[in-house]
């Protein structure tokens, strides 16, 4: 069976979860899957309505060129990549269904930006390149245009090469696509999640690169006293702990003591669900939700209803989660992705 067909089967098998510990493990048996679904929190009507309103807001705010961006046109690579994923988490893909034309425009915007970039390193920072890579990984084989699928494969392989070349000697990444740019946990988490997504799609990611990420997170960023991850060096921030633990899980460290300690730090963080006190609320929960999925059904079942209900309350009257007109474009699509977690449409957000 070819990669294109494999890709379609992965998306169509909603709820089919994969264990990712360096290599992909066998899928759960039907009995295990049924048991997991019975215990897992389900999508509520209120959550579905919130997602629907959020998607309608995204449609109304899409730029004429197909992108999503901040009001001044900034962060269009990140905004468009996340916007596409917000629809994909509900099972909507370019060229298909009621949103097909709008999503096709977004896809073509990203492919044009990739074509127009001589180096392939698009966007403002490595954050944007990471989000672009995730979007390409999840789009590959899932659009109605077979020619575009070939282009997506080529673009995806090129961006993965750029990311791998940019890994620092210590194993992480920072803002610039260069190995001498340094590293921080925030950028490293975003970039490594994108590599995990690409690897799940079938792109080669060397084991050595994964091992170096583990070394950076465990030896350079994880703080044994606090149980979490620091931004640069050992320490603790909510966002870096959420991103760091998710990246560590995808790198094959689910059952280690240091990953368990980081999960405990998130669960015991008193400001975690406070929009006022958690300054990176949407960004940190984007990672934390997926970390709890990776951590197993018990943690997921406790975490999802709390963030689901928090996000429903935070939704703005216009359907967005943008609190200011000049906000970065990530909040609304990230909120939709979090709310849509039970759907399990996007492979990198599965266990």
Layout of helices and strands, plus pairs?
Blueprint: H1 3-12, E1 20-21, E2 23-24, H2 30-39, H3 45-61, H4 76-88, H5 100-116, H6 126-139, H7 146-166, H8 185-201, H9 207-221, H10 238-250, H11 257-267, H12 281-295, H13 297-314, H14 331-339
Antiparallel strand pairs: 1-2
Helix pairs in contact: 3-14, 4-5, 4-6, 4-14, 6-7, 6-8, 8-10, 10-11, 10-12, 12-13, 12-14
Instruction: Give the termini distance in whole angstroms.
Output: 23 Å
Cα gyration radius (Å): 19 Å
> Can you tell me the overall shape?
globular
Q: Helix segment count?
A: 14
CATH architecture: Alpha/alpha barrel
Strand content: under 5%
**Structural class category:** mainly alpha
* CATH C-level label: Mainly Alpha
How would you state the average pLDDT, rounded?
Answer: 88
Strand order of the largest sheet: 1-2
H/E series, N to C?
A: HEEHHHHHHHHHHHHH
Classify the fold: give the CATH topology: Glycosyltransferase
Number of strands: 2
- Count of discrete structural domains: 1
Which bin fits the share of residues in helices?
A: 55-70%
Low-pLDDT windows of residues? 1-38
Major sheet details: 2 strands, antiparallel
């Amino acid at each position: 069976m070819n990669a294109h067909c494999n890709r379609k089967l992965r998306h169509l098998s909603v709820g089919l979860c994969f264990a990712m510990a360096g290599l992909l493990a066998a899928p759960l048996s039907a009995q295990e899957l049924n048991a997991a679904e019975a215990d897992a929190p389900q999508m509520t009507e209120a959550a579905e309505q919130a997602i629907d309103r959020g998607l309608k807001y995204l449609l109304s705010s899409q730029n004429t060129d197909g992108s999503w961006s901040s009001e001044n046109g900034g962060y269009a690579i990140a905004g468009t990549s996340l916007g596409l994923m917000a629809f994909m988490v509900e099972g909507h893909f370019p060229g298909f269904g009621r949103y097909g034309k709008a999503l096709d425009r977004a896809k073509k915007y990203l492919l044009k930006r990739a074509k127009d970039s001589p180096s392939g390193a698009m966007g403002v920072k490595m954050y944007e390149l990471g989000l672009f890579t995730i979007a390409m990984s999840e789009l590959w084989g899932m659009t109605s245009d077979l020619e575009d699928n070939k282009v997506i494969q080529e673009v995806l392989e090129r961006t993965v090469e750029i990311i791998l070349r940019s890994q620092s000697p210590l194993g992480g990444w920072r803002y610039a696509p260069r190995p001498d740019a340094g590293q921080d946990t925030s950028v490293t988490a975003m970039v490594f999640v994108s590599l995990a997504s690409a690897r799940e799609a079938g792109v080669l990611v060397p084991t050595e690169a994964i091992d170096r990420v583990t070394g950076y997170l465990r030896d350079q960023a994880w703080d044994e006293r606090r149980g979490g991850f620091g931004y640069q060096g050992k320490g603790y921030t909510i966002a870096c702990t959420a991103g760091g633990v998710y990246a560590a899980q995808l790198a094959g460290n689910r059952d280690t003591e240091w990953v368990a300690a980081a999960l405990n730090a998130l669960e015991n963080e008193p400001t975690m669900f406070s929009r006022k006190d958690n300054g990176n609320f949407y960004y940190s929960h984007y990672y934390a939700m997926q970390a709890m999925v990776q951590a197993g059904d018990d943690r997921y079942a406790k975490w999802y209803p709390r963030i689901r209900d928090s996000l429903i309350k935070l939704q703005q009257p216009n359907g967005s989660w943008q609190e200011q007109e000049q906000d970065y474009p990530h909040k609304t699509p990230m909120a939709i992705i979090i709310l849509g977690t039970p759907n399990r449409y996007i492979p990198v957000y599965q266990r």
